[in-house]
Write a structure and sequence with these properties.
Length: 252
């Protein structure tokens, strides 16, 4: 009985961490990847900018001051040659700058609208410019949105296996923003109507809590992965495939 009580006491002490979910994480390099390449609406202003500003503000609102980089799919043309195919001296500067930000990233947040029940091509184009070793052994989060009632959920779920294959495993919590033009204004703020209803009065607080769940998971796994990478080089046990596709083949 004494041993059992001692064991239970140790469990309770382990669980007695800070009541604030924002206080545990050290600063991370967080890359926010904005996937839409649309430049005009309707709706106007286009939704991507609203959502990106909202997500950025949500990360900045955390107690830990993370280093945030915004990577816009509009800054890269259609993929003709990936970063790893260039000789080092021939890599275009804009591509190299984006590579360095992604390589130094500890966690990624991908933002996508839903096109034909799938992630937007701009986001995939951006990420496919780089090899999976840039993203691997780090977590990712998914934010989707739409002008309709589903918030891009099908696009978000289609994105999960893609991110997993790159090695930046998506956290379980995802952010869906339906009717985004009615939820966020052009500055990324939650729109509060003049109605005095209880649902409207705490609308912003509910959206903040909704986003915080995903960001908290991203911080948790981002910090864990960062500390482990400081202990060991993950590429030693799981080297990147860089020479030819057959490196992935099973032994004959």
């Amino acid at each position: 009985i004494i041993k059992r009580l001692t064991f239970m006491s140790s469990l309770i002490s382990i669980r007695n961490f800070s009541s604030s979910p924002q206080s545990f994480a050290d600063a991370l390099n967080v890359c926010i990847l904005v996937g839409s390449t649309r430049e005009d609406g309707p709706p106007r202003p286009i939704l991507a900018n609203r959502v990106a500003k909202f997500v950025e503000a949500s990360v900045k609102r955390r107690q830990t001051q993370h280093n945030i980089s915004i990577l816009d799919a509009k800054d890269l043309g259609l993929l003709k040659k990936p970063h790893f195919s260039y000789a080092k001296s021939q890599i275009p500067q804009d591509l190299e700058d984006m590579y360095q930000k992604l390589k130094e990233g500890d966690a990624y947040i991908t933002i996508t609208p839903e096109y034909n029940h799938a992630p937007c091509p701009g986001l995939l184009n951006l990420m496919n410019h780089f090899g999976s070793s840039v993203f691997s052994f780090k977590p990712s989060g998914i934010v989707s949105y739409s002008a309709g009632q589903w918030g891009g959920t099908r696009a978000a779920h289609s994105l999960r296996p893609f991110l997993s294959e790159l090695g930046c495993i998506p956290v379980s919590a995802m952010i869906y923003i339906p009717h985004a033009m009615n939820v966020l204004d052009e500055d990324g703020n939650v729109i509060i109507s003049t109605s005095a209803s209880a649902m409207e009065s705490d609308k912003e607080e509910r959206w903040i809590g909704y986003c915080d769940r995903m960001i908290h998971q991203l911080e948790f796994w981002g910090q864990a992965a960062k500390r482990q990478r400081e202990i060991e080089d993950p590429s030693l046990g799981s080297p990147a495939f860089v020479k030819k596709p057959s490196e992935r083949n099973a032994p004959q």
